[in-house]
TrEMBL record:
The keyword Transmembrane helix applies. The chain crosses the membrane at residues 93-112, 132-153, 159-182. The keyword Transmembrane applies. Keywords: Membrane, Transmembrane, Transmembrane helix. This is DUF2391 domain-containing protein.
């Protein structure tokens, strides 16, 4: 028998049925239990991945923020972020490509990569997914706050600061998207 304190599983059920089967002497009853065991073995257990994800709430926002931080902290302490930001600050096309990369990677991870079945639920203005806005917003706010608090950007030069934050957002948007959808909420 399964431990009463644990959540029962399909394996526990099969084990219990096999123990019952071993005690039966009546062939008809034994056959019925064997059929039940065979049926139980054919049942698909819910996968960790493949759940349907709808909506975007505080828990999702928190997961996205934690994911952003996990991949963002190395960007905050790495000088290369500021160098890359200075580079794209003087090249508008590079800035546009970087922003497109941030958005494209986030959309790709959440909606295209098929890691989870993510559904668009009540989009903003009828077409902008709340989850996309939430993940990108969490990445942007986290990058802006952390880079400002840690002195990694100088707001005396706002365009340079924005460029450096955009560079930090590349891995942060990846972390935010993964942090949001991998728990499956």
């Amino acid at each position: 028998m399964s431990d009463p304190g644990d959540e029962p599983s399909l394996v526990d059920l099969i084990d219990d049925l096999e123990r019952i089967e071993d005690t039966l002497e009546d062939e008809t009853a034994r056959s019925s239990v064997e059929e039940a065991i065979a049926t139980a073995r054919r049942i698909d257990t819910p996968p960790v991945f493949g759940r349907v994800i709808r909506g975007f709430d505080r828990a999702d926002l928190t997961e996205a923020t934690v994911g952003s931080l996990l991949l963002g902290i190395p960007m905050f302490v790495e000088g290369g972020t500021n160098e890359a930001g200075a580079f794209i600050a003087t090249r508008p096309l590079a800035m546009i490509v970087t922003i497109a990369l941030v958005i494209g990677l986030t959309v790709g991870i959440i909606y295209v990569a098929d890691i989870q079945d993510v559904r668009v639920h009540e989009p903003i203005l009828g077409f902008v997914p709340r989850r996309l806005v939430g993940v990108l917003g969490a990445s942007l706010i986290t990058a802006t706050l952390m880079m400002t608090v840690w002195g990694r950007v100088d707001w005396a030069e706002p365009w340079l600061a924005v460029s450096q934050i955009v560079v930090a957002m590349v891995p942060m948007s990846i972390g935010g998207a993964l942090g949001d959808i991998l728990p499956g909420s």
